[in-house]
Amino acid sequence: MEASALRVARRLTVNGVVQGVGFRPFVHRLAARLGLAGWVRNVAGTVEIHLEGDAPQMDAFESALRAEAPPIARIDDVHSIVAVADGADGFSIAASADADSARPVPPDVATCPECERELFDPANRRHRHPFITCTACGPRFTIIDSLPYDRERTSMKAFAACARCTAEYAAPEDRRYHAETLACPSCGPRVWFEGADGGGRADGDKAVLLAATALRMGAVLGVRGLGGFHLAVDATNDSAVRRLRSRKHRDAKPLAVMVRTLTQARAVARINDREAAALQSSARPIVLLRPREGAPLAPAIAPGLDRVGLMLAYSPLHHLLLHATDRPLVMTSGNLNEEPIAIGVDEGRARLRSLVDAFLLHDRDIVSRCDDSVVRVAESHDILMRRARGYAPVPIFLPAASPAPLVAVGPHLKNTFSLVRTDRAFVSPHIGDLEGIEALEHWQGAYTRYRRLFRVEPTIAVRDLHPGYLSTRIAEELGLSRVIAVQHHHAHIAAVAAEHGVTDPVVGLAFDGTGFGDDGNVWGAEVLVCDLSGYQRLAQLRYVSLPGGDLAAREPWRVAVGYEALAGWQSDAFSLAYYGIPLAQRSSVQQQVERGINAPLGSSMGRLFDAAAAVLGVRRHSSFEGQAAMELEALAGDQPAAPLPFPTYEAEGRLHLDPVPLLIALGEGRKHGVDVALLAARFHESIVEASVDLARLVAGSYGLGTVALGGGAFQNARLLSRIACRLTEARLRVLVPRELSPNDGAISYGQAAVASWLLSRE
Ligand code: ZN
Ligand code: ZN
Ligand code: FE
C-alpha cells in the first residue's frame, strides 16, 4: 500500500458478541478488500481495530462492519476515535491483550451454508463428516467450559487437531482460521448407532444410515445432539408418533418437527416471509406455523391445535440423518415429561432406554444443557416462547448497573435464573419446572457452571415472594449476605420495561397463570402502575375460588364451579362444563367452594381461559398448562368478533373485572347454537376490549403514556397483537417482550432488574 499525504488513522473499539464468532478474520478480509492497513486484536471481551488509509475507505469500513458482520456476531456499539498513523504496512491479526473481564460467551450457531455445501460435496475432505464447523458456525455455549474461548477449554479438547486441520486453523485467509471447533473425519468426534440394550453397534456413516432405516421402519430413536438428547420418530407415521407419546407420558403437548430445507418446510406448512426468516436464522428456533391442508404429518403431532412447531436442521448430524431418512422427523426433548433433558451418553442410555428402540450417539461432550428455542411470529412482532439454544447466553442489558454481583433465582415453573454483573444479566436457558430432585440438581449444576463461565460470584440473591417455592429455598440456602424478594407480576412488567430501557412508571398488564400475590392469593390478571422500584395494583380480575388449588389448573371444569358459585348457582349457562363429570364429584367440589376448603382465591387470566373452555364444552381436563387457552386461540383464529359484556366494579379501592356475565353469555350462546369458534373469538375480543379500556383509564388518571404487556397469556398471539394494536391506536406507547419470553422464562431477568435498580439507589 502506498503511503499518501491524506493517510489518516482511526482506532475502533467494538463491543458485543464479537469473540469466538469469526470476527477477526472477517475484519481482516474487509480491511484487505478496502485497501486499509492496520491490525485487529481481541482486548478483554471487545475487539480493537487500528486502521490507516483514506478517510472515505474508513467510512466504508465502518458501515460494512455492521452490515456484513458474521451472522452470529452481535455488535452492541462501535467507538471510533482519531488515532496517530504509524505507517503500518498491510493488515494483520495481532496477539490478544486479554485482561480478566467480561467476555460474552457466544451462543450455538446452526451449520452455515458453506459447511452444508461441503458436507454433501463428495470431493471435499469433510464430505459427510457429522462435526463439520467453521468460525461462522457450530456449537459454542454448549461445549465451552470456561473462558477465554479456546479449544482446550471446550469439550473439543479431547480431539487433537490433525496436521491439515492445524494448518487451516493457522491460516488467516482460511475460513477456519482460529475455528476452535474445527475437525475432520481423521481427527474429529465419532458417531455410532446402538440398540436400546447396547447391542448391534455400528460406526460412522453406517450408523447414520442404520438410524435412518430404523426411523423409516417406525422406531423411536434417542439422538444425542447439540444441547442434549432428542427423541426422534418418523413424523409422517401416526402410530410411531403415538408410540412415542405413550412412552414419554406426553398425551397432548405438541411435538416439534424437523426438516432439512425451507422447501421441505413449505411442503408441510404455510410460511410467510417473516416466518421463513425466523426458521433460517442462525439460532434455528422451533417456529410455530400453520400446517398445510393435506400435509403428510401425523395427526398425533399437535392434536386440536392450529399450529405445528417446525425447525430446520441445525447440526451436520441432523442434515445427514434427515437426508438419509428423506422425511420430516419429530425431534422432541429427550426426557420423561418435564424433567431436564439428558445430555451425557451414559445418562442418556440410563434415562431413555425405556423410551427408545435405539440410539444415535456421539462422543463430543455436552457441557451445558440447552433446549431448542421456540418462536411464534405474531402480526406485530416475533414472540420468543422459549429462549434457549441460539439465544442464550447472550447477556441482556439492565437499565441500572448493580453495585454487587447477584443471582436472581427465577420462578417456580418454566424456570430460568440470571447472573448479574454490573449492567449485564446472563439469563440461563430454559431450565424447566423446579419440582423434584433432578430439577434441583440440574439447577445447582447450571448455577455452578455459569458462575465459572461468566465469572460472577453473587453476594446477593433475588427470589419470588412465595415462601414455599423450591426456588425460594434455593435462594435462602445459597448463604449469601442478603436476599431480596420480588413479586411475580412486578417482575413480569419490570422485565419488559427493563429490556426496553424504560425506567419511568408504566401501566403494566400482567396476564398469566399463577403468581403469588402480596395478599397471599393467586394473582394472574393484574393492572399495575409500576416502575423498577415498586408497584401499585390498580385493577384485577375478580377473585374466584380455585377448588383443589393446583388441581384446578389441570381441570378447567373445577374453575367453572368456582365461577358458578359467584353466579349464585343460579345460572344454567355452566351445564356444558360438567358434561361427563360424575355428580358426586361435582357436588363435593361445590361443597369445597362453598366451605372454602382447599380452594384458594385467584385472579388468574389462565384460569379464566380454562373456565371459558369448560363452559364452551371445549375442554374439561387439561394434560398440560395452557392447553385450553391454546385451543381457544386456535378456534378463534383471526375471525373478527364483537366483545361480550365484561364489566368492572370498584371495591377495596381497586377496579375489578367481573367475568361472570362474560361466562354466562358464552354458555348461553353455546346453548342457543352459536358457533363455538365465533364464541371463542368473542371471548378474546372481550378481554381485549376490557383490558384496553382499563389501561387507558389508568394511563389517563396517572398521566402515563406507556403500557407494558407481560405474562404467559401474551403467548397468545391474538391477545397480544390485538391489545398492542388497540393501545397504539389510542396513542399509547406499547412495550412488548422481545428479547425474552412473555412467560415465566423472563421472571429471573425481571427480578434482576428490580434488585439492581434498588441496590443502585441505596
Ligand atoms: Zn460453517
Ligand atoms: Zn483434522
Ligand atoms: Fe407468570
General description of the model:
This protein has 762 residues and is α/β, with parallel strands linked by helices. It contains 22 helices and 32 strands. The mean pLDDT is 94. The longest helix has 27 residues, at 676-702. The termini are far apart. The protein has 4 domains: 3-93, Alpha-Beta Plaits; 191-374, DHBP synthase, CATH 3.90.870; 395-498 and 744-760, Nucleotidyltransferase, domain 5, CATH 3.30.420; 508-735, ATPase, nucleotide binding domain (Nucleotidyltransferase, domain 5, 2-Layer Sandwich), CATH 3.30.420.40. It binds zinc ion (2 copies) and fe (iii) ion. Fe (iii) ion binds next to helix 13 and strand 24. Fe (iii) ion binds at residues 488, 492, 512, 515, 711-712, 744.
Task: Give the helices and strands, then pairings.
Elements: E1 8-17, H1 23-33, E2 37-43, E3 46-53, H2 55-67, E4 74-83, E5 91-93, H3 113-119, H4 163-170, E6 191-195, E7 202-203, H5 204-216, E8 221-224, E9 229-234, H6 238-248, E10 257-259, H7 262-268, E11 269-270, H8 273-280, E12 286-291, E13 308-312, H9 316-325, E14 329-333, H10 345-352, E15 358-362, E16 374-377, E17 382-386, E18 396-397, E19 406-408, E20 418-421, E21 424-427, H11 437-454, E22 460-464, H12 470-477, E23 482-486, H13 488-499, E24 506-516, E25 522-531, E26 534-541, E27 544-545, H14 550-554, H15 556-566, H16 583-595, E28 601-604, H17 605-615, H18 627-636, E29 648-651, E30 654-657, H19 660-671, H20 676-702, E31 706-710, H21 717-729, E32 733-735, H22 747-760
Parallel strand pairs: 2-5, 8-15, 10-13, 12-16, 19-22, 22-23, 24-31, 25-28, 26-30, 31-32
Antiparallel strand pairs: 1-3, 1-4, 2-3, 6-7, 6-15, 8-9, 9-14, 10-14, 11-12, 12-13, 16-17, 18-21, 19-20, 20-21, 24-25, 25-26, 27-28, 29-30
Bound molecules: zinc ion (2 copies) and fe (iii) ion.
